[in-house]
Amino acid sequence: MTLIYIFITLVIDFIAVDLERFRKFNWFISLYESLNSNYGNNKYWDSGLGLIVLLAIPVAALSLFLFILSFLHIAIEIFFVISVLLYCMAPRKIFDQINDSIIAAGHEESDLVMETAHLIDREVSGASDNNDVVIMKSIFKETHTQILATVFWYLVLGITGVFLYRLVEKLHSELKDNSSEFSESVSILLNIFEWPSVRVFAIGLALAGNLVTAISALKKSQIFSLDANYSLLTTIGIAALQYSPDSDISNGEKSYWLNQFKFLITRTLIILLIFVAIMILSGVG
Known about the structure:
This protein has one domain (2-281). 73% of the residues lie in helices and 0% in strands. It is built from eleven helices and no strands.
């Protein structure tokens, strides 16, 4: 049933008109702010212990609800599981971003930066990266966050794992500019969550792209570092794509590399989903 739930979630997300407006985690940020305003000066709150308490509240509520649903008709439980998956996983968002970048690439250079600004994540981009590379690196990260990590933790810990990962990721986005032990604990926990799934994604990119150049890039990367998750992913991704803007292969087509990037992402997701299906059907998962 696990694979069926994932497939149904993917289909619904791609055919639905707009699910992004429902993927709001303001309630969780409000819960954090409420607890922080009451216990912010407490040394136990401003630590990993405070983070555990914060996460335990919604996770315990979800677990209790799932327990209650187990006594009801299975159709209700299936509906709830798929709803949580849709709430936490946004595959269509990734391809919308890629298509936006491809369309923008065909416009004048003066409009390009403005039209692709919403696609760019400065956390993973370098000062020397051109606009195409910045967009690709940002979408590599977003693809992992919205699809790969959620599927990975669903396979490992079930629907509770998906929900927990998304809570940590949203909290990190909210607190990434803060300087406190609490926000540092959030970053560490997110890095731990993303360490295995990033490397699964990187392997998928290598298999879907140029394996030789990806392995060469892998040898130069910090494979085991928790802090190098996305630098590892983007390095291998660009290498697997064999990105070379100075070559004549594009024949002057401005969106050539972004189109190739889209194909690489698509192939990678297909390969990894087939691998998951084989594991589940063989009884490994």
